[in-house]
Amino acid sequence: MVPAVSMRALTKRFDDVVAVDALDLDIADGEFFALLGPSGCGKTTTLRMIAGLEIPSAGSLKIHGDEVGTLPPNKRPVNTVFQNYALFPHMSVADNVGFGLRMQKTPKADVARRVGEAIELVRLTGMEHRRPNQLSGGQQQRVALARALVNRPKVLLLDEPLAALDLKLRQGMQFELKQLQREVGITFVFVTHDQEEALSMADRIGVMGDGELLQVGTPEEIYDQPVNRFVADFIGRSNFLPGTVEDPSTVCLTNGTRVTVEHAGDAGEAIALSLRPERVQLTDRGAVPEGQASLDGTVSLVTFLGSGVVYQVALDWMTVEVRAENRPSVPRHDVGDDVSLWWRDDAVAVVPA
Amino acid sequence: MSSSALDPLDIVDPDHEHSHIGEEVERRLRRADRRRGFLLALPAYLYMVLFFAVPLVIVLIYSFATRTSSGSVALSGWNLESYRKLGEPIVRNVVFRSAFLAAITTVVCLLVGYPYAYFAATRRPLVRNLLLVAVMIPFWTNFLVRNYSWRLLLSTGGPISSATEAIGLGETDLLFTRTAVVLGLTYSFLPFMILPLYASIERIDWRLVEASRDLYSSGWKSFSKIVFPLSLPGVIAGSILVFVPSLGAYVTPEILGGGRETMLGSYIVTQFLTARNWPVGASVSFVLMAVMLSATIVYFRAGGKNL
Questions:
Q1: Which of A286, A350, B17, B258 is the most core-located residue (most Cβ within 10 A)?
Q2: Which residues, in sequence order, are bridge partners of residue A275?
Q3: In what helix (H) or strand (E) does residue A121 lie, and over which residues does it extend?
Q4: Which residue of B has its CA nearest to A79?
Q5: Domain A237-352 part of CATH 1.10.1660.10
Q6: Please, are residues A61 and A67 in contact by the beta-carbon 8 Å criterion?
Q7: Which residue in chain A is spatially nearest to B218 when comparing CA positions?
Q8: Does A313 touch chain B (CB under 8 A)?
């Protein structure tokens, strides 16, 4: 099947700064794709290139098989939900939503009907005649969505659409957006710096850093098998235990402990074990299953989070963060307790040091 | 401000009717503030009353007075005769001509000023400032001198005439025509159009233009549907600032119109100095001012809602 968006060596330079560096990426039709990365990583520039608001410096960009690299934005079958919504302040909600249709010279009756439908879709019926400044942030967000969706674009681009909302509203909108995407079946390309947003909404995530695409995969793949420290660190929290590969299934940590892993890599390579805090088991000193490698340490800090407890465990050579659930069956530890840490062989990912 | 002023009181008597004392202190501070403000503004107030309000009242009083046969003014027998005269064809013609020329001047200023303001507002800061200074430079020269230099430019055998002759269009004889008056007025009042336009265009959020482009509008449609409507406050302010002084202009029509294109300003001067009919001059002045004032008030009322 032809991908909805296809980029090959797509590059954008501003003067001598490379904002997006030779991106290769295919986004499937009907997919909810998140571009995730810290600010300044090039994700917004990538989105703006798809929208036509930036012209690529090099490379190819296709939408449903058609090269669009230098096409102006009004000639592309894509619409954007802008970060601050960019609603037209001098127009009513209905006029904002109908703007794209009017520009395409859609017959008046059709405009009225489709605007009504779009406003209903985002549950703003009754607000048609309000001005944007008479709406709350969440409502403005919905208008921006309706204004884009009413045109039935082949790809909907969303630039941090939830960033301006408060936490509760944001969580509600995450769910709604995902629901909406299933309903309309349009390809969504979503830019965010919020890993939780990306994990909870996207079918696939592309992690960007410094203008490069570092890893593309499902939320599970990205979280469980990060390809490097940057990805592991950006998505969730992680401990990095330095070591050396001994053979394809054994790693020798810097303190001499040998641990078994699933895919270690080439012998002699310097690597780090990425160990998620919630995957580490914390037990009293020595209470470790037979034959399982373990690390001994002392609890140095206990942070209670409600749903869980985070322990900082000081080893001789580093500190490890451990997250335990707050359940009656999980024993609690106090500062100063002597403890052992262990984990299942498949709980860790090997990343370059 | 009030709470810090309250602190000493709190220390002296920590639990004695805080709120009551607080209110009293706050009231006194507010009163002191008002008094200070009034004293600071007093010289300006006095100046305005003495040189603006008082002469205005005198003009108003004269407009109801009677002209004696010797040309002096009799401050008795108050009547509305001078206002009735405003309906006469001569005056009506002058009013229409003035309004017409002022309107044309406003339109020309808008057509010339908008592209300039748009261009300036979309440049980087350094270029912007240079372009704005360029608008204001003519102000450093005396208004009369500027008008006389236009007379030189437009005169028969002058630079403009020679230029058109050189390119084969024949001699132009613009001086003492309506065109010359509109040219002069446009030149004089163009900055009053450009500056408010610049201010309102510069304030526009360009992400809105991006959004409109994303929603299938061409560059031209983005301008007519987004940029222009959002710059309307500047268009209206600039138009009033050009139309009002053009309507009452005296120097430019005199110098460049050569007295052939009598506008309201010249008519008023004639009434006072030549015709020695002070009541009529006063009544025309007063009506003109009232019209300008109401136009301005209407604008600011409307502007308050839309901005």
A1: A350
A2: A239, A348
A3: helix A108-121
A4: B214
A5: no
A6: yes
A7: A74
A8: no
State both tokens at B28.
């006194």
Touching check for A73 and chain B: CB below 8 Å?
yes
At residue A280, does pLDDT exceed 60?
yes
Location of structure tokens 């997006």:
A20
Q: Which amino acid is at B235?
A: V
Give this complex's ipTM: 0.85
The closest of B255, B254, B278, B277 to B265, measured between CA atoms, is B254
List residues bridging with A18 in a β-sheet. A13
Task: Pinpoint the alpha helices (H) of chain B.
Answer: 2-12, 18-48, 54-63, 81-85, 89-121, 125-136, 143-154, 159-166, 178-202, 206-214, 219-222, 228-247, 251-257, 264-273, 278-306
Give DSSP secondary structure letters for B173-222: --TTSHHHHHHHHHHHHHHHHHHHHHHHHHTS-HHHHHHHHHTT--HHHH
Mutate to test the interface with B, among A63, A78, A103, A105 (most CBs of B within 10 A): A103
For residue B288, give the amino acid letter. Answer: L
Residues A242, A350: Cα–Cα separation, whole Å: 10
> Which phi and psi angles does B247 have, rounded to 5°?
-60, -40
**What residue spans in chain A does CATH classification 3.40.50.300 cover?**
5-229
> In sequence order, which residues have a C-beta less than 8 Å from that of residue A319 and are 6 or more positions away?
A300, A312, A313
In the structure, what pLDDT confidence band is assigned to residue B307 with cuts at 50, 70 and 90?
A: very low
Could you tell me the maximum CA-CA distance found in chain B, to the nearest angstrom?
A: 95
Adjacency order of strands within the sheet including A319-325: A281-284, A338-342, A295-304, A308-314, A319-325
Q: Identify the closest residue of chain B to A152 by CA–CA distance.
A: B215
Residue B132 to chain A, least CA–CA distance (Å): 28
pLDDT, tens digit (0-9, with 9 covering 90-100), for B3-60:
444 444 444 454 555 567 788 888 999 999 899 999 999 999 999 999 999 999 999 9
The superfamily (CATH) of domain A5-229 is P-loop containing nucleotide triphosphate hydrolases (3.40.50.300)
**Nearest CB to B217: which of A74, A80, A87?**
A74
b/e sequence B193-229, b meaning 16+ C-beta within 10 Å: bbbbbbbbbeebeeebbbbbbbbbbeeebbbebbbeb
* A105 φ/ψ angles, rounded to the nearest 5 degrees: 60, 40
Question: A151 contacts in B (CB within 8 Å)?
Answer: 215-216
Q: How far is A166 from chain B (nearest CA, A)?
A: 23
